[in-house]
């Protein structure tokens, strides 16, 4: 008789299903070599007692799991119709179908380690009892596909009191982490209060830091692995990418974190570190005032962004101050002496606070505009002019406009200009060749008529690129 889990039933072992393991198995015609009959009889006896002890619900679950009209424990049969010495783990059948032709895969992790033939009578009873319980647990999980369980786990994770707390205090948790590394800690009062606060932060933030970034407020989006832990009625949901896993209990529907904390304590602690920091901030109103000044200056300087950028190369105090301020960030609203507000302050250079005491926007604006004007004028002076002398020898000057006239001509003409021919042309010597090429009508004919020939050659070599 063939069952849906591919196997065979033999009298008198009616509670067992014999299943080929390993590759390509022929039909099994008989079972139980002499020495195996004793152990099979014991297994049959224990299994039938365990099956009889199942509740109707468990019975039904196992029938469905093993896709059979009756509950039978699958027993592996290896080559030559011998018993495979290890019982099959239920994970073999979880969310899977196997074919009789190929037999069950011979994979160590799909079988129990223990060789059941070597167990004492008591040990065998214990092993089979555990095994039937495990089968029942797997049968429950097999009722729904993995994604259904994953959805339940995701919901339960989001509902976990610590994760809910973290989500509701997300702004405070993030603010604490930012503030703990902030440059402002160097200027707030008093160092001993800050040292104490930071010490508390290390303790209070530990459980939040133990959760990977992608799991902080809800389950991460990576591919998950589900493994069953029947001893705890739990599914272990792991993310290999995050190296993190949580346990979900099938019966109470709750998620268990790797490190559970007292929620009551966590609620108090997160409130306390926020309050303690706010007290520190209140002690440092001079810093808050300084930050407000900087915040205002930054807003006032915003329209001068282009001007500041154009002066960026200058070591002028107004420029240096404006550039440092440009790298700073402030909250949109006025800065308040509290954790959330100050966590939005990024001040790469805290010496700005000192400088802000002496700086007024009017002065800053005036200095920047003045510097910008000066730079513009200097740039204008540096601009090339037609009268710039690009080459000179003795009293003879070759100006930028002369050079331009020659290079423009060279670009337009199709005539292959040698140094010699160009020198003659610039000198204005109407040789037969120049006449033949119509060059005596060229715009640059005689441009350097007053120059000695040898100077013309030198000037061309120095200032005019040929071909
Ligand atoms: Zn992940």
TrEMBL record:
InterPro entries from the UniProt entry: RQC_domain
GO molecular function, one term: 3'-5' DNA helicase activity
Domain RQC span(s) in chain numbering: 405-463
One of the protein's GO biological processes: DNA repair
A Pfam family the protein falls into: RQC
NCBIfam families: RQC_minor_2
The protein's name in its UniProt record: RQC domain-containing protein
């Amino acid at each position: 008789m063939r069952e849906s889990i591919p196997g065979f039933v033999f009298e008198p072992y009616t509670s067992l299903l014999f299943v080929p393991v390993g590759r390509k198995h022929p039909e099994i015609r008989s079972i139980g070599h002499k020495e195996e009959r004793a152990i099979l009889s014991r297994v049959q006896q224990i299994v039938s007692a365990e099956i009889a002890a199942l509740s109707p619900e468990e019975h039904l679950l196992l029938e469905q799991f093993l896709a059979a009209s009756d509950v039978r424990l699958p027993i592996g049969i290896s080559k030559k119709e011998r018993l495979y010495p290890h019982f099959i783990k239920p994970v073999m059948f979880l969310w899977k179908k196997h074919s009789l032709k190929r037999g069950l895969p011979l994979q160590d992790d799909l079988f129990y380690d223990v060789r059941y033939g070597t167990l004492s009578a008591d040990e065998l009873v214990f092993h089979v009892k555990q095994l039937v319980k495990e089968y029942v647990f797997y049968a429950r999980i097999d009722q729904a596909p993995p994604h259904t369980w994953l959805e339940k786990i995701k919901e339960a994770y989001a509902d976990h009191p610590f994760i809910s707390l973290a989500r509701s205090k997300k702004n405070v948790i993030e603010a604490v982490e930012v503030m703990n590394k902030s440059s402002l800690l160097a200027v707030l009062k008093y160092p001993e209060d800050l040292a104490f606060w930071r010490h508390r932060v290390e303790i209070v933030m530990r459980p939040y830091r133990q959760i990977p970034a992608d799991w902080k407020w809800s389950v991460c989006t990576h591919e998950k692995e589900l493994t069953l832990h029947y001893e705890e009625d739990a599914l272990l949901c792991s993310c290999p990418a995050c190296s993190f896993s949580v346990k979900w209990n099938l019966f109470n529907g709750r998620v268990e974190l790797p490190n559970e904390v007292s929620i009551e304590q966590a609620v108090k602690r997160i409130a306390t570190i926020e309050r303690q920091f706010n007290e520190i901030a209140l002690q440092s109103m001079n810093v808050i005032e300084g930050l407000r000044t900087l915040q205002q200056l930054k807003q006032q300087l915003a329209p001068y962004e282009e001007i500041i950028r154009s002066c960026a190369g200058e070591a002028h105090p107004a420029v240096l101050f404006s550039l440092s301020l440009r790298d700073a960030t402030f909250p949109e609203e006025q800065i308040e002496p509290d954790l959330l507000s100050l966590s939005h302050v990024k001040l790469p250079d805290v010496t700005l606070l000192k400088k802000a005491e002496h700086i007024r926007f009017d002065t800053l604006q005036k200095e920047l505009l003045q510097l910008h004007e000066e730079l513009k004028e200097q740039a204008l002076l540096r601009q090339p002019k037609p009268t710039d002398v690009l080459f000179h020898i003795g009293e003879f000057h070759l100006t930028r406009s002369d050079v331009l006239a020659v290079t423009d001509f060279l670009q337009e003409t199709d005539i292959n200009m040698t140094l010699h021919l160009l020198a003659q042309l610039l000198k204005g010597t109407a040789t037969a060749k120049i006449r033949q090429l119509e060059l005596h009508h060229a715009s640059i004919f005689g441009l350097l008529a007053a120059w000695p020939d040898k100077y013309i050659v030198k000037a061309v070599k120095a200032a005019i690129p040929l071909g």
